[in-house]
């Protein structure tokens, strides 16, 4: 929790500095016209939204289950650009719930991601930057392997992932095309819940027990790796009012099973109805050899091998940019 508080405090301070770095000027010719002082090198982009989907049945012959889902999401960007320096910061939050008749409230989405990249280029003509990059990701609440809701399979900071590395990044002028290559990236996996750490969840070293089941040594709460990281971002309006956004991350550890690649791919298609109403279609694919799937067998949760994780999302909601 201390790391989360520090991360949020950092982002708050960044926001405060950015707010005071801009000077508001009112034009004499047009009092309502507001201009931004060009001395500021910050660019702010904020987006919050809420998606909702609902289906209800009353005396419906074909049958069906009434349900309602909601997803609250936010994306906050702070970009500092001056001469040959570029500092990009992004905070992404998403939290979704679903309620069906006869079934308890269930979580559908839970994301907290913070990223920061500081880059330097030799001249203003180049699109390649020497870049130091930091990424942090975790969740807000406990996760369960439904229908089992008695024992959590994940918790806040269990897991949490930190990527910290040095490399080279290609960035287009509008930042809609990004390619980052890092031969030296440290991946830190944290499992700050001792029960999950004892199980060896998410790849940490599990606890040791004697033949009678007595605990000898508790499981480790963190795992540190050093490897190669490739990330990509691509955003384009493919048709009028239809924008596609791609995010890709590939990571391989040098020491443990080099060549075994962790994959994280997120594809989002945004269809604009108007300034405030948008439809989103998304596909998220994850493969991580350290994440073991859980299945329920005869009423008990059984840990099986790693599997490809797939999530598909379709939502219509309200979006506000400021």
UniProtKB/TrEMBL annotation:
<dbReference type="Pfam" id="PF11276">
    <property type="entry name" value="DUF3078"/>
</dbReference>
<protein>
    <recommendedName>
        <fullName>DUF3078 domain-containing protein</fullName>
    </recommendedName>
</protein>
<keyword id="KW-0732">Signal</keyword>
<feature type="signal peptide">
    <location>
        <begin position="1"/>
        <end position="21"/>
    </location>
</feature>
<dbReference type="InterPro" id="IPR021428">
    <property type="entry name" value="DUF3078"/>
</dbReference>
């Amino acid at each position: 929790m201390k790391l989360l508080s520090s991360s949020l405090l950092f982002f708050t301070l960044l926001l405060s500095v950015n707010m005071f770095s801009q000077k508001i000027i009112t034009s004499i010719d047009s009092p309502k016209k507001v201009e931004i002082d060009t001395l500021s090198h910050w660019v702010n982009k904020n987006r919050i939204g809420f998606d909702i989907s609902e289906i209800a049945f009353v005396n419906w012959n074909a049958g069906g289950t009434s349900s309602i889902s909601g997803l609250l999401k936010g994306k906050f960007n702070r970009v500092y650009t001056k001469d040959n320096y570029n500092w990009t910061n992004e905070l992404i939050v998403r939290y979704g719930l679903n309620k069906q008749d006869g079934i308890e409230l269930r979580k559908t989405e839970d994301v907290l991601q913070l990223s920061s990249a500081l880059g330097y280029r030799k001249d203003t003509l180049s699109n390649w930057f020497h870049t130091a990059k930091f990424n942090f990701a975790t969740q807000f609440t406990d996760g369960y392997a439904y229908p089992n809701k008695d024992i959590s399979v994940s918790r806040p900071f269990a897991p949490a992932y930190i990527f910290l590395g040095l490399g080279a990044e290609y960035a287009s002028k509008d930042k809609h095309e990004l390619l980052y290559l890092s031969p030296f990236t440290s991946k830190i996996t944290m499992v700050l819940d001792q029960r999950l750490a004892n199980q060896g969840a998410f790849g940490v070293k599990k606890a040791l027990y004697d033949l009678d089941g007595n605990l000898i040594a508790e499981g480790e709460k963190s795992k540190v790796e050093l490897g190669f990281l490739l990330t990509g971002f691509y955003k384009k309006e493919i048709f009028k009012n239809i924008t596609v956004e791609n995010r890709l991350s590939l990571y391989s550890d040098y020491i443990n099973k080099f060549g075994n690649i962790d994959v994280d791919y997120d594809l989002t298609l945004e269809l604009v109805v108007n300034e405030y109403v948008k439809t989103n279609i998304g596909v998220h694919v994850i493969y991580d050899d350290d994440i073991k799937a859980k299945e329920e067998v005869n009423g008990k949760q059984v840990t099986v091998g790693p599997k490809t994780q797939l999530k598909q999302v379709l939502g219509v909601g309200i979006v506000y940019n400021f």
